[in-house]
Amino acid sequence: xxxENVPQREKKRPxxxxxxxxxxxxxxxxxxxxxxxxxxxxxxxxVTTTEQRKSxxxxxxxxxxxxxxxxxxxxLMSVTPVQRRRNRKPEEExxxxxxxxxxxxxRVKENDQIIEKPICYKVFLSIHGISKGKLEHLxxxxxxxxxxxxxxxxxxxxKVRRLPDATYQHVFDHIGSxxxxxxxxxxxxxxxxxxxxxxxxxxMFNMFKQVYPEEKVSCETYRNIFNTQFNISxxxxxxxxxxxxxxxxxxxxxxxxxxxxxxxVTIRKLEIENELHKRRADAFYDKKRTARRRDRxxxxxxxxxxxxxxxVYLPNIPTNDVYYLRQLSMYSFNIHxxxxxxxxxxxxxxxxxxxxxxxxxxxxxxxxxxxxxxxxKHLHLFCDSAGGQNKNYSxxxxxxxxxxxxxxxxxxxxxxxxxxxxxxxxxxxxxxxNFKTRMELPKDYYDLLERSRTKPTPFSVIRV
Length: 464
Fold this sequence. Notes:
Residues 1-20 are annotated as: Disordered. By secondary structure, this protein is α/β, with parallel strands linked by helices. It has helices spanning 17-28, 44-47, 50-62, 66-75, 121-128, 132-144, 165-176, 201-211, 219-229, 243-258, 261-297, 357-370, 393-405, 425-431, 442-450, and strands at residues 77-81, 100-110, 113-119, 181-182, 193-195, 232-234, 301-308, 312-314, 328-337, 343-349, 378-382, 411-415, 460-463. It folds into 3 domains: 15-82 and 98-144, no CATH class; 165-234, no CATH class; 282-463.
C-alpha cells in the first residue's frame, strides 16, 4: 500500500486553562450507575433501595477532588491474605495465584441509622459508577501500602512550562498599574477596585503585549493572575442595595429549607418585621408625593430633592495611556425641584473643593438666594442620610441660620429615608447622562450635562 495515500491522523488538541479545570470537575461529577449483578449469594440490588443507590452516587459525584473519592472508596474496601489455595491446573502448567482477597461494602441509612452492607465486586463498580481500571488502581495501593492512592498529577517539580519569576512580576506590575476607584456605596465593606466599563481583560492583555512584546505569556495566564491576585472588577455599582431586605430574604430561604414548626413561627415574625420595614420605606415616598402636589398648588411652598452624583473621571477617552494615569475627578451636586422638575447641577473639579457639608450648605444658600422666589416661605428637603454631607449638625445650624438669623424662610423641613430606600429624582437625572461619551476637558462634561435632557427643561449647569 502506498504510504502517500494513507490519511494522516489528526493530533488531539489538549485542553488548557479554564477548559482544563472545567473538564476536571466534569469528570469528577459524571459517574453514572451501572447495571445490576443478579448474584444469588449477596443479592446486592435486592437489599438496597433505588433511593439508597442514588444517594450513594450523588455523594460520590459531590466529592470535589480525586483524592477525596479515592479515600472514600478505599474506606469501603478491605484486603486480607489468601487462606486457602486450590490449583485446578496441572502441575506442569504455571498457575496464576492471587495473594490477596478483597471484600466490598456500602453505607446506607435505614431507620435513622447508618449501617454497612456487604456487596459484590460488580455492584461496587456499578453503584459508584467507576471502571475496572480505577478499582484495580485502588486495590494495588491498598495491597502495597495499605492506604488510598494519592493523585500526583501536576505536582512534579520539573515544570517545563512554568512562568518565569521575572515574567510573572511584569504581569503583576502591569495589572497593578491600572488606576481603579473604590465603590461609593460599599466603601466600608469592600476594598474592591473598579476599572472603566469600556475595559476588559483582553484589552489589558493587548496593552501588556505592547509594553512587553518579548514576554511569552498567554492571555489565559494573564487572566489567571488577574483573577487570583487582584480584587478588581469592571464597571461601577449603579445603586444602593438594602441590607435589611437582603438579610430577610437569606434568612427566610434558610428557614424554609429546614421545614420545621419552629422555623415557620420564625418566618412569620420575620415577615411582619419586613412588612413594617417596607411600610416605613413607602412612607418616605408618600411624603415626597404629597410634597410634590403641594409644590404645584401652593405659592409659598417648594419641595426639593438633593444628592451628590457619582464622580466622573476626565479625560474619558479610549487611549490606552489614560488607564495608567490618575484622572481628574468631576463632582456634581444636583438640586431637583419636585413641583416644576427644574434640575440644577453644581459642577466643579476636585482641585476646587471637596464633597462635604460645607459644599452642601454653600450650594443650598446659592439656590435659595438666586433661584427661589421671594414669595417662597416654606422649604421641604428630601435627601439621603449621608453623615458627611446631609445629616450633620453643620447642615442643621445652616437651616437655623436661614430661618432665624436672616429670616429668608419661615420653616425648613428635611426628610431622610431609611437606608437602602433612597431612590430620588436625582438618580433618574443621572441615568439620562451617557457616560460613554468622549470627554477630554471639564468643558466637555459641562456640555454633556446641558444636552442630556430636553424635556421638560434642559439641565441647568452651574460651573462653580
